[in-house]
Amino acid sequence: MIDRTYIAAVFLLLGACSDEPSRPPEPLEAPATLDERPRHGDHNPHFGGVVWMQSDDLHFELVLDPNGVHRIYFSDAVRTELPAAVARDVSIVIKRAGGEPEERVELAIDEFGESWLGRGAPVVSDPEARAVVRFVYRGEPYELEVPFHTKPTAPGEPDPHVVP
């Protein structure tokens, strides 16, 4: 059996051999609470669309594809992804120029539960086309009409996607 005094002496010698003076450990910072985290600072698209705010605690990224495959992703105030089921009755209506009838694109939750997915007719050569997004969040209906061909905000530009 090894003598405890011997083990203690080895540790003391090893500690004395260090060129670095021993320091107490740095205090740990308390984790930020939700209220201390930045709110609404990130409007960068994570899925290639455009990010909009529905309320203080809900963002959504609208991905309108000219080929007709559209998605909506939801995230919270600090852009943490939320399951698609956070909203219900989700739809997109495409309004085309030239008197064409409106197209209602029905959306359904994708196979992973991450987004609402819908397929419609292509919207390739219509610069005047508009999209109306509708959904219900926490029992409140929401509607937003946007240009179909919207580009994400460039760094340094004012964010037009914040809806009062």
Plain-language structure description:
The protein has 164 residues and is mainly beta. It has 1 helix and 10 strands, in the order H-E-E-E-E-E-E-E-E-E-E. Strands 1, 2, 3, 4, 7 and 8 form a 6-stranded antiparallel sheet that branches. A 4-stranded antiparallel sheet has the order 6-5-9-10, with no helix packed on it. Strand 2 (58-63) and strand 3 form a beta hairpin. The chain is globular.
Which SSEs are present, and which pair or pack?
Elements: H1 4-16, E1 50-55, E2 58-63, E3 69-75, E4 81-82, E5 87-95, E6 103-106, E7 108-109, E8 115-119, E9 130-137, E10 140-147
Antiparallel strand pairs: 1-2, 2-3, 3-4, 3-8, 5-6, 5-9, 7-8, 9-10
Gist of the model:
This protein has 1 helix and 10 strands.
What would you call the structural class? Answer: mainly beta
Largest sheet: 6 strands, antiparallel
The number of distinct β-strands equals 10
* Helix-strand string: HEEEEEEEEEE
How far apart, in Å, are the first and last alpha carbons? 75 Å
Low-confidence stretches: 24-31, 159-164
**Overall average pLDDT:** 78
Rg (CA only): 27 Å
Overall geometric form: globular
- Beta-strand percentage? 25-35%
Total helical segments: 1
Helix content: under 10%
